[in-house]
Design brief:
Blueprint: H1 3-16, H2 20-29, H3 32-46, E1 52-59, E2 65-72, E3 79-85, H4 87-92, H5 96-111, E4 114-120, H6 121-126, H7 128-139, H8 154-166, H9 172-179, H10 183-195, E5 199-204, E6 207-213
Parallel strand pairs: 3-4
Antiparallel strand pairs: 1-2, 2-3, 5-6
Helix pairs in contact: 3-7, 9-10
């Protein structure tokens, strides 16, 4: 399914199950920045909007209703609040009282078990790869497993952890130099991980130059 179709179904489903201010907030609040976050950051990683809640209602210490841009609520644990922050609306035009409240709200939600993630609009629009890297870093241990469990050797897990920490496609040379093992052994292990559906080869000039870690399998390296 293409992003536009998935997004339309996503919003329609949430509108249909809401009423009152919760429905109105979604209709009013889900705009360009939030859509761009889903399109540039979330969708390229997961190709799914499952377990994501737009304009999610939370309460502060005074039981005052507030709305997060998104809440990610994976079934295997964790509560993540995701905010798309524009410089003008979240910094330049914010007075001292609103600034203090914003910080206190995040601290309160953290104390209530939320993990708050803030993404600058400029990065969402111009440097989405940075946002994707940070999102992977935070969500990896909590990602719901989408495929059958794959048996991994200890040395394969070490390579996967290393590839994930790089934050970019891994080269055979990277693995050889980091672990100080024979290049032939490196190619054998990388090929094995591709065969298990964990890595994806990146071809350039007719040969494999890099290997990418598939996000849906990140939870298997812990």
């Amino acid at each position: 399914m293409e992003f536009e179709d998935a997004h339309r179904e996503f919003i329609d489903a949430h509108l249909n199950c809401r009423n009152g201010e919760r429905r109105g907030r979604l209709a009013r609040g889900h705009k360009f920045a939030e859509i761009l976050f889903l399109q540039n950051v979330w969708w390229p990683l997961f190709e799914s909007l499952e377990h994501l809640q737009p304009e999610y209602e939370v309460y502060d210490w005074n039981r005052k209703s507030q709305f997060l841009d998104f809440a990610y609520l994976p079934p295997n644990g964790g509560r993540f609040g995701i905010e798309c922050d524009g410089f003008q609306t979240h910094v330049r035009d914010m007075d001292r009282e609103r600034f203090s409240y914003a910080l206190n709200r995040d601290t309160f939600l953290t104390g209530m078990g939320w993990k708050m993630l803030h993404f600058p609009f400029d990065d969402i629009q111009q440097r989405p790869e940075v946002c994707r890297m940070l999102l992977q870093l935070t969500l990896a241990p909590y990602l719901a497993r989408r495929t059958a469990t794959v048996d991994l050797l200890p040395e394969e897990k070490e390579i996967l952890r290393f590839a994930w920490q790089l934050g970019r496609p891994v080269r055979p040379k990277d693995v050889t130099e980091h672990f100080r093992i024979n290049p032939r052994t490196v190619y054998k292990r990388l090929s094995s991980l591709c065969g298990k559906g964990i890595l994806s080869p990146v071809h350039k000039g007719g040969s494999v130059r890099y290997y990418e870690l598939k996000p849906m399998h990140l939870d298997q390296i812990w």
